[in-house]
From TrEMBL:
<keyword id="KW-0328">Glycosyltransferase</keyword>
<keyword id="KW-0808">Transferase</keyword>
<dbReference type="Pfam" id="PF00534">
    <property type="entry name" value="Glycos_transf_1"/>
</dbReference>
<protein>
    <submittedName>
        <fullName>Mannosyltransferase (Modular protein)</fullName>
    </submittedName>
</protein>
<dbReference type="GO" id="GO:0009103">
    <property type="term" value="P:lipopolysaccharide biosynthetic process"/>
</dbReference>
<dbReference type="InterPro" id="IPR002201">
    <property type="entry name" value="Glyco_trans_9"/>
</dbReference>
<feature type="domain" description="Glycosyl transferase family 1">
    <location>
        <begin position="224"/>
        <end position="373"/>
    </location>
</feature>
<dbReference type="Pfam" id="PF01075">
    <property type="entry name" value="Glyco_transf_9"/>
</dbReference>
<dbReference type="InterPro" id="IPR001296">
    <property type="entry name" value="Glyco_trans_1"/>
</dbReference>
<dbReference type="GO" id="GO:0016757">
    <property type="term" value="F:glycosyltransferase activity"/>
</dbReference>
Amino acid sequence: MRILIDLQGAQSGSRHRGIGRYSTSLAKAIIRNAGNHEVFILLNSLFKKDIPQIINDFSSILPKEHFVIFSAFGPVEGLVAENDWRREISELIRERMINDLAPDVLLIMSLFEGAVDDSVTSIRRLPTSTNTAVILYDLIPFLDPERYIPAPPSSTWYYSKIDSLKKADLLLAISESARMEATDALGFDGERVITIHSAADESFSKDKVLPAKMEEVLTRAGITRKFILHVSAFEPRKNFEGLIRAFGLLPNNIRKSYQLVLVTAIDLAGQISLRNLANDAGLDEDELAFAGYVSDDDLIALYSQCTLFVFPSFHEGFGLPALEAMCCGAAVIGSNTSSIPEVIGKEDALFDPCSDKSMAHLIERSLSDRAFWESLKAHALIQTKNFSWDKSAKLAIQALEQMPSAASHASSRLSLPKFLDMFTSIKKGSPSENDFIACANSIYRNENTIKQWDIVRQNAGAALAKKRLCDLTLRESNRAFGDQILLDDSAIKVIRSDVWRQQDRPRILLLKLDHIGDFIVALEAFGLIRDAWPNAHIVLVCASWNKSLAEETGLFDEVFCCDFFPESGADFDRDSMTGPGLAKYQALSLGSYDLAVDMRYYGDTRSLLLHTNAKYLAGYVASGVKLDVALPEVPETEMVAQIGARAMALAAAVVATFAPSSGRAAKILLRGRSPIRSFTSGKVIGIAPGTGNPIKSWGSERFRELARLLHEKGGFKFVLIGAASDCAAAKLIAEILPKSDCLNLAGTLGIPDLSPIIAGFDLFFGNDTSTTHMAALLGVPTICIFSGQSHVDSWRPLGRSVITLKRVVNCSPCYLTKLEKCSNNHLCVNISPTRVAEEGLALLKDSLAE
């Protein structure tokens, strides 16, 4: 059986919530327990930033070739009416892609996605021969519509997903409570709903926390004494208010010994509201602590150290935090409603969430009755054994195996002309020229994906799709820029800087297959990389004679041996060692990495990077290996640079590329001045339309259209900057913006005075020029629109919140100094303002989330 898992729940806004955790964990368990079944994973191209990390997370159990990326075009957020046409077309495109992949079963990990992001989910918009199963978490909005979906557009969107859910062949419920909701509220036949439960990740264990780590976490969370813990999303059904009131009802002699710690992603307004409630309940300020959103490692520490975990929710689909807390040895009590009794599994550990007194009474008993508290902790160790991801996966696979043969469904193959004819029946919205272009490109890319995967027989038609949609475009709208009607977005290179902060934990592989002297002089370089990322998992591959020294340095988390060369000095034949050396290297079980660096100066080991599973490859340049970070090769015959200095140069290049800025440049630019907010409200977008040389310019007309598109989104303010020579371009942009929303500073300030203005921007757009580099160094989310005049890897700005956009053309880099010398009509800057706006808004959203 071929199982295709739609894993958008791990890409969307749910990825940091229980649904994202559930989706990823269950998918991994299904893969581990698949037996003779084939498993593939379907991902959404609109979340392209997260795709490499997801593939990397599965690399030890699923080949990269088993991931399928379906191309969609956005935005498709379900609560925005202007997106209706794009969303419905994208749903059809996704279903066609699935039909072409021809799985026996499609398992949708999270159907109710896409209200506020670019997830694309639907069931049976097209005829299909594939059985469809859906993970059912809960039907809370359906059961309480007045609270959760009181009116359109939220109700319209939600009920459309309910309509899709009803078309599923099988529901896999995460609790018996959720299963009963499907049968009682939606009328599902009991045989179509199977309970598979949930589980906690294996990392949730009190044994995984070091004492030093514990102290650090408690200090960071503002915890000064024993504490009661609650963990959940900040939603009305989670009953934060009831918990605070119940805590306030405890006798003073008990309450004063504890803090109530809330782990939730909550904004300032929410914190103020709960603080006011706590004050009304008689709590002192230090009795309530907000830990905010915490990492899994920190969460495990808090679970392990809390005196009591309280889960007062009114309604849950499962209640994963309660199970995670029990896995970490916590004493856990919770509500007697929905799925929570299934998870806790102890009747005297339950209270009525609608009664503050009931909750307070059980909290008081748990804190004052030592025998009862110990019984809660003992029960937790027993109860958690009833749940595991492998158990859930086996139940899921068994249910999928028992589904009726897919042959009983209608034929799924729809010819491309008939598929395109379906578009005319969609009357919602007013698609633009760019919409038709993006639609054609999505179909084209999906057709190519099917060819590359060779999972099903390829039906010709990509060219037909492009021609028909292009014709439709010509009938519907005028040409916006030049004669290039159909611009393939895949020709736009989106270059992001993966920047790992000191607290991040990238996996880094270092190859140093050298002799003892070479290894010793590289120690400073190794130390430079370790200093940049103290928490990184750094693995070294070295010769066996360097192993003990490597381990004693304390710089590496793991050391692997590979005797690529013989031990004796230069007494070896390079040509004869390559084959055996590669075989030794391939025999190592190294796993996957964010970055792999070959630290050997000579190029004879560089080809090993081609046999390394890493997102980025770095080293001194060598033929045949494309590197992300490389230094010019010093001629071997001259040996101009000292060997230790060469190693430091490579390490410095790696750190400069992937580590965040030290902030030194920003301090120099600001010279003690504070950022200046040019407007008192709204998000401020900076635009610098100029550049020193017209051959590097995106063009004032495009910047003008970009400003118009961004202003349509509403709420944005604009500041235009540039030299005196940029005044005409800035004036052209300012003319289409309300004066109250635009400040034109072009030609009024020198470079030194621009720094505090730029530092006050929320988002910046510019060419490859000085102000763009300044914005990046100041930490402003920056979009650099790069021409093909110079080499993008040499001149693009770097930073965690920096994106460079460049059209892929064969004539780049040309290094021409005059625009009139370009014989290709400046094609390299032909990037649509719509695409630039989309990338900018996505970058702003990601930056605000961070």
